[in-house]
Amino acid sequence: MTSERSGSSSRPAQGARRPGGQQARPGARRPAPAGANPVAQRIEQVRSALGEILQWSGPADQVLSRWFRDHPKLGGRDRGTVAEAVYDVLRHLRRYRHVAEGGRGAATRRLAILGLASTLGREGILPVLDADEADWLRRVSAIDQAALPREIRLSIPDWLSEALAIEPDSDSLLAALNRAAPLDIRVNPMKADRETILAELRAGVASEMAEPTPYSPFGIRLQGRPALTRWGRFEDGSIEVQDEGSQLLALLVAPRRGEMVIDFCAGAGGKTLLLGALMRSTGRLYALDVSHTRLARFKPRLARSGLSNVVPVVIANENDARVKRLARKAHRVLVDAPCSGTGTLRRNPDLKWRQNPESVSDLCALQRSILASAARCVAPGGRLVYATCSILRVENEGQVEAFLAAHPEFELLPAPELLADRAGALSLPGPYLKLRPDVHGTDGFFAAVFQRRHGPAVAQVAAAEAELPEPDAQAAGLDDEVEAPDEEPARDEAAGSAGNLGEGDR
């Protein structure tokens, strides 16, 4: 981006009046007209996009996608610049608002200036600012951030700061969540191997940016944003975008050939595809979700994957008659539950501003209901994996403790031992899979593994489940397929929105 400004409009005559009647100081600079300088245009574009996003009418990525559709003349590089600045503002919103209080003019313009100063560099935008804005930017850039209160310095709401204060090195965790995430992809083991894909990436699409993920044997980590969606390997289903932490969930489920497996909150099917590949496309894999749109979005991915053992099924809720038909039949059940999404703040920073203690409490109630319903589907000796992309203990350890207290027919299995020969050098201190961006380089993930016991407790539960009402005879069969849309919808990257029985593309 050029940082040159228009000489014809940068310096008004002495004594000239500014809009609003204020007299400009001698030598003061007016901002370059929006059409005269690309950087000046970017400020106005970021300001406009933020004006819509900060109304919190929906996930930031969806609102920004609509904004881009409304501004079709923006090129790909310009869209990238706007998006990067917008997400920088969302990550640091509380701190930026705090320092912006000392400026003049529209608050969203000051936020846009701070976002672009962070992403383009301060010297890249100073030439297009007026004297007051330039002085303000220099002043706030010199603030000692270490002297700011924790909540402002790390830009988090008070409730989240309090909830995470019990976590070890919580400042390090929150600082990592305020940094942009790399791009993780997963190789489809049905179609390719990681070394081949790595070599092809390094030879062309991603150059030096591609490295194998340290824990998942299927993952590749990319720095930057290479154009993968038009690459032949993406189009033929050899790779999928999936965070390494999400890949490890499938390894915890550890499905075997010929088994019946349920992905209870399948979303757009990222984990389903890896589960199906680990099953070598044998057995039966049900992908359940309450959203027809998400499962329809999954259909093109499923077609590319080459799998033939996956059955997408739309359910009304966790107690749908179709779920009851699966009682005690599944060898493996994965519940990647709807959650606050606080582990994905690197990718979805708006979630910390859209969630609150009340919404988290509602999600916890839904998680308990989903987990109890999914547990009924597990056969004796079968495995149940409960997972979230949350870093909040109330959604994680708290749910595990409540579930075990209410379901003595299940026992907790040690996740680190289950992954010992599958996940490289991954070291975990406790019985759970707990991943952090500052420690493991992944999104924040949690998972617990349960196994249904054999014994008297099982018999008691079986008798109770036998009393469940029979499914409605008119309910459609489990093998009903989901129709794909005429066009694949734009990708929804906002995970963990309240009320969803799925987590985006994870």
From TrEMBL:
Domain of life: Bacteria
Domain SAM-dependent MTase RsmB/NOP-type: 173-453
Name listed for the protein in its UniProt record: 16S rRNA (Cytosine967-C5)-methyltransferase
Family named by the database record: Belongs to the class I-like SAM-binding methyltransferase superfamily. RsmB/NOP family.
One Pfam family linked to the record: Methyltr_RsmB-F
Region (Disordered) location: 1-38, 462-506
Keyword S-adenosyl-L-methionine: yes
Keyword Transferase: yes
InterPro entries: MeTrfase_RsmB-F_NOP2_cat, MeTrfase_RsmB-F_NOP2_dom, RCMT, RsmB-like_ferredoxin, SAM-dependent_MTases_sf
Comp. bias regions, Polar residues: 1-10
Gene3D superfamilies: Vaccinia Virus protein VP39 (3.40.50.150)
Species, as recorded: Pigmentiphaga kullae
